[in-house]
Amino acid sequence: MESIRLEIDGKFVEAQEGMTILQAARGAGIDIPTLCYDERLAPYGACRLCTVEITKDNRTRLVASCVYLVEEGLVVETNSERVSKIRKMLLELLLPLAPTGPLESLARKYGLEGSRLTAEQTSCVLCGLCVRYCAEIKKANAIGFIGRGIDREVAFLPEVAPKVCASCRECFAICPGGKLASETDGVRFPISIWQSKQELR
Amino acid sequence: MSEEQIQILSRLQQNSNLSKSDILLRGLEILGEYYSLGLDQPPLSLELRNLEAAAMHHAEALRQIRKKEEAIKQVIQELGSVDKAIDKYRGSKSALIQILLDIQAQNHWLSKPALMWVSERLGVPWSQIYYIATFYKAFSLTPRGRHIIQVCLGTACQVRGAPRLLDKVMHVLKIKPGETDQEQRFTLTTVNCLGCCALGPVVVVDGNYYSRPSLEETKQIAASYE
Amino acid sequence: MARLSSPADLEKLRQEILSQRDPDRLCVTICSGTGCQCHRSEKVVDAFVHEIEKLGLQGRVDLRCTGCHGFCERGPIVVIFPQQICYLGVDTKDVSEIVSQTLIGNKLVKRLLYKDVETGQHVAYENEIPFYKNQKRIVFGSNQLIDPKRIDDYITLGGYFALDKALFEMGRDKVLQVVEDANLRGRGGGGFPAGIKWETTRNAPGEPKYVIVNADEGDPGAYMDRSLLEGNPHSVLEGLIIGAYAIGSHEGFIYVRQEYPLAVQNITIALEQAREYGLLGANILGSGFDFDVQIHRGAGAFVSGESSALMTAIEGRVGEPRPKYIRTAVSGIEGKPSTLNNVETWANVPLIINNGADWYRSIGTEGSKGTKIFSLVGKVNNTGLVEVPMGTTLREIIFDIGGGIPNGKKFKTVQTGGPSGGCIPESLLDMPVDFDKLTTVGSMMGSGGMIVMDEDTCMVDVARYFTDFLTQESCGKCVPCREGLRQTLNILKNICDGRGKEGDIELLEEISEVMKDASLCALGATAPNPVLSTIKYFRDEYEAHIQKKRCPAKVCRELITYYILPERCQACLICARNCPTGAITGGKHLIHVIDQEKCTKCGICFEVCPSRFNAVVKLSGEPVPPPVPRITKHILLVEDEVIFRESLRDWLTEGGYQVTTTGDGEEALKVIRGQEFDTIILDLKLPGKDGIEVLKEAKGQKPSLKAIIITAYPSPETATEAMKAGAIDYLIKPFNPETLERVIAGVPEAKPEVTPETNER
Q1: Residue C308 and residue A7: Cα distance in Å, rounded?
Q2: Reduced to 3 states, what is the DSSP secondary structure of residue B3?
Q3: Contact at CB, A146 and B178, closer than 8 angstroms
Q4: Which chain A residues are Cβ-neighbours of C507 within 8 angstroms?
Q5: Which of A48, A101, B116, C560 is the most exposed, fewest CB within 10 Å of its CB?
Q6: Where exactly are the structural domains of chain A?
Q7: How close are the terminal C-alpha atoms of chain C, in Å?
């Protein structure tokens, strides 16, 4: 395994080939905030909170650190003004969906008191952690995404969930928005997802 | 037996020309086969029950099927069309979207039994099938009308007054985009550009294009489709 | 069809086909692209078949259904060879005349020819029509010469000669070199050099390698790829095979959107025919090179046209984009090296191989070589597909080729690049169009969609429209795009509905910035472009919506009201009958009024009011004038001529007034004392007391009485006397009853006499 040297926030960091910037940073004690990342799961790159500024060959751009692989000589800034601004805006966009919990404390850390924007409070930020956990770790595929765009939702699939979820419920702990715990008491699951918003509309 | 049960039995006998003992014997044969195939034990028993529930739901969605055996026959027919589509693509998992397109084209919707069957035969998780079915606009999880009316809302048509045309169509059909009328004659949808911008604004019915219809012409167009 | 197992076979086949075709033989070609089919071109084809058979001309005249000609505004298009006489807008009832006049009689049917708007001259030949003359149709031009369902047509034009040359004369390295030297850049919008992409895939580790045609064309208003794939599928296929050869790929995909059924059909036929001839499949033309293609249909998602999403869809998963830090050219379908190019890009390849890189470089600008096909649509006279060298200016495309803006309206802006692009104002019309120039002004060339907009377009509505489109099409995976679009759409809708607030524009700009910087794919990153470019060039419209609740272009429904101008209304009842909510009141002689409470702003009244009246107008940001008060209810008509009196009474009664009549002045005064009247219509020449006397006494009795004098014997003196005595108007017989109506209604400006005409649409 080749060793790769890169610079993160002015600090020289040694990393292994095949590691992502996020992994390298955390390994060196530098924290980058994330929402949709879990080290047990393949990185997803959806929340974009882990965005960092990288410079290579005199070109600077913004990338998601949880999916960008380390490169020799890369210069990374994890909390520049530009990055900070982005994170603040992302949190402002997410807060209306899940105003309490981990998002709230993260928002305060970035100087955000509340959000100027409004949206339906679904308690779900669509980070996909539950879906991916159930697919990759439990291999049960009992919870999944349905729909696309702003109509995207996460739902327990009644064709599968009633058989496997009551005795598992491991996805509850991983949910940052609070939707899973609030919606099911762990015993009852939606009888028919076929009556989803799609159909009723 | 109760009065009701006697009535049901006599009706059954009338319909099938079988005597009561014929029916009972037939039932025993079917039961024998049922047990020998292992259909009374999980997991098959659960899956069979799932398919039965899906068939009943299917019947409800189609609004026409009244009897259980009709529903099951309908579903078996539909599963046949699914098999045909899957065989056309040689059971390839990467052809999943193509298979679903074929099923949608043939049946005018993706019913639950059909999707369960695809999941079963291709070995693709139910969650992936359901996600694909809800992600793409070409698929409908509810039965569509016999004729699809599409009003183009592409930019060129928009600039030429497509929203007014949509108003006219809604006025004539009395339904909103995404809805099917009560007789299941039409399903109204909007499309983001059909690519015949010179004719805008355009409404398409079953692949027939109508350019800039007036209110009167719109009424005539709707009346010409049964 | 015999399989071709060598270049010599191909050449022999071409000679065979050519020898069987007589270039001087009459051939009627009819455009059968989707556009002309909307105009029922297939019925025109049937009519020709029928007519030719009827007259026994089958031996002398051929018939060919071709691909799209591009002049879509004027379809169905019929071109007669060998002269290349071009007839536009042909209908089934024109067919017998064309056959007898042109085919048999060798004469032109003038009314079907193109007529120059300025000179009035007719143009007989297709390539002399200004629309075509100003283009350079090196890629698209072949469409009109071939039947896309017949591979032989393509072969007679020299088709598959480039493939032959590539396989047998040039070899893989030379092919790659030539494409790189020519600087062919991707026509799908990205503009990435195709040669470099091919080389990357070729050198990347991993087998198998894939080549892909992206025919998912999703930009609303763009249909170039559809017409190419429908009209000349072999040009795309030939380019694909050459590319696959250079790269070392043996498996290809053509990803077509399912909304293009004719394109799917024609490319399927093309693949079958190519396979039969051994031009596709194993051992192509006996070269030892194997390559075959699968068609993969899209299922209705714009985002799946993004390259990484497209490849994910081909894998059978949901077509969502992936982070593209490792290029798909290196790691694409199932992690294997995959080169994806647009339909038009592939179609350029045979031309480059046949004519060389130097020839290709001689066309276009420094950075952008070759031509580009644009779909010129919207508020433009000559809507259609236009192919010009890179570097042609917007003005040339829109005005010289496009013929400018219809209906005498003023150009406002042109939207280029679809939902990823922006709008370009009039001041920048002389900008040359290529990959690099338009991005400097906040837009992009994109895949070639060019939507022209005039003064009746609201730019805030345009931004809202594109944002709405993208909101529906976003996959929803990443936060900046999904939530950014949700909020942007919300704000824009509020602005269009009159609920905009101070600070909205700045908020839009903030959200746009995070979308540009942090989105996962290009859909999110370019989504703010329509919003930002309209704010840049049309900020005043945004401000009018927000601050004054006014839509200057009078488009946004919540900010406009429909109003019938009383002075123009001819009371024809057309609008009232067509109003879907019954919001218009009025009668045959009563000025129509829209009840704003009931009005749903559908605009039907505006559309149906006959253009010579133009009585319905749109107001925005100003209060609706109160309806002309109907204070006249009871009229006293004093006229001694019986027939005239009765007919005038009937006419007024029909108009909803209560009318009392008398033929005598004294009688009239008696009646006024006994009943309530608000208006008196007084004839001057009466038996007994004359009109002026009666007027004076009546006004004396009831000063508020409205008096209108009518007479057949006008004189300035009596007119002055009457007005002095208190008449509000003085009408000379014969007068138009509608003028009388207006006077009664108290409308200040009476329009000059207009004879009531029959209602037409």
Answers
A1: 30
A2: helix
A3: no
A4: 116
A5: A101
A6: 3-79, 129-200
A7: 56
Reply yes or no: is the peptide bond before residue C734 cis, omega within 30 of 0.
Answer: yes
Q: What is the pLDDT of residue C752?
A: 35
The predicted pLDDT at position C751 comes to 35
- Note if the bond before C82 is cis, omega within 30 degrees: yes
Residue B38 inside a domain? The answer is no
Residue of chain A nearest B127, judged by CA positions: A144
Round to whole Å and give the CA distance between C366 and C183.
Answer: 10
**CATH top class, domain A3-79:** alpha beta
Q: At what angle do helices C691-701 and C665-674 cross, to 10 degrees?
A: 10
CA gap C195, C185 in Å, rounded? 8
- Show the beta-strand stretches assigned E in C447-557: 449-454
DSSP at C108: -
Predicted local distance difference test score (pLDDT) of residue C568: 85
Low-confidence ranges of chain C (pLDDT < 70): 580, 587-589, 628-632, 746-761
Are C437 and C467 part of one and the same domain? no
- What is the CATH number for B195? 3.40.30.10
Q: Answer left, alpha or beta for residue A58, where phi above 0 means left and psi between -120 and 50 means alpha.
A: left
Give the Cα separation of A166 and C642 in Å (integer).
96
Q: How far is B50 from chain A (nearest CA, A)?
A: 8
Instruction: Give chain B's residues under pLDDT 50.
Output: none
Interface size, chain B vs chain C, as Cβ–Cβ contacts under 8 Å: 137
Which of the four pLDDT bands, split at 50, 70 and 90, describes residue A144?
very high
pLDDT digits (tens, 9 = 90+) for C280-339: 999 999 999 999 999 999 999 999 999 999 999 999 999 999 887 889 999 999 999 999
Evaluate whether C629 touches C747 at the Cβ level (below 8 Å). Answer: no
Q: Do the Cβ atoms of A89 and C514 come closer than 8 Å?
A: yes
Which range marks the domain in which residue C416 is found?
371-457
pTM: 0.84
Subunit partners of chain C (3 or more CB pairs within 8 A): A, B
Q: Which residue of B has its CA nearest to C41?
A: B209
Q: Exposure of C496 by Cβ count < 10 A (0-12 exposed, 13-18 middle, 19+ buried)?
A: buried
Residue reference for tokens 């076929």: A194
Q: Partners for B (CB, 8 Å, 3+ pairs)?
A: A, C
Estimate to the nearest angstrom the gap between the alpha carbon of A108 and the chain centroid.
Answer: 18
10 Å CB burial of residue B1 (0-12, 13-18, 19+) is: exposed
Residue B77: exposure state from Cβ atoms within 10 A (0-12, 13-18, ≥19): exposed
User: Mutate which of A146, A163, A196, A201 to test chain B, going by most B C-beta atoms within 10 A?
Assistant: A146
The pair of three-digit structure tokens given for residue C428, joined into one six-digit string: 């920048």
Identity at C574, one-letter amino acid code: I
CATH number of the domain that residue C491 is part of:
1.20.1440.230
- A121 to chain C, minimum CA–CA distance in Å? 13
Neighbors of chain A by Cβ distance (3+ pairs < 8 Å):
B, C
DSSP-H helix ranges across C553-599: 574-578
pLDDT score recorded for residue B197: 65
Residue B185 domain flag: yes
Q: What percent of chain A has pLDDT over 70?
A: 90
Per the CB < 8 A criterion, the answer to whether A114 and A90 are in contact is: no
Instruction: Give contacts of C 465-524 with A, CB under 8 A.
Output: 471-480, 482-487, 490, 507, 510-511, 513-514, 517-520
Tens digits of residue pLDDT in A93-129: 999 999 988 899 999 999 998 899 999 998 899 999 9
Compare all CA atoms of chain B with the CA of A144 and give the residue at the minimum distance. Answer: B127
- For B152, the closest chain C residue by CA position comes to C220
How many residues are recorded in chain A?
201
Tell whether C704 is covered by a domain: yes
In this prediction the ipTM stands at 0.93
Total number of domains constituting chain C: 6
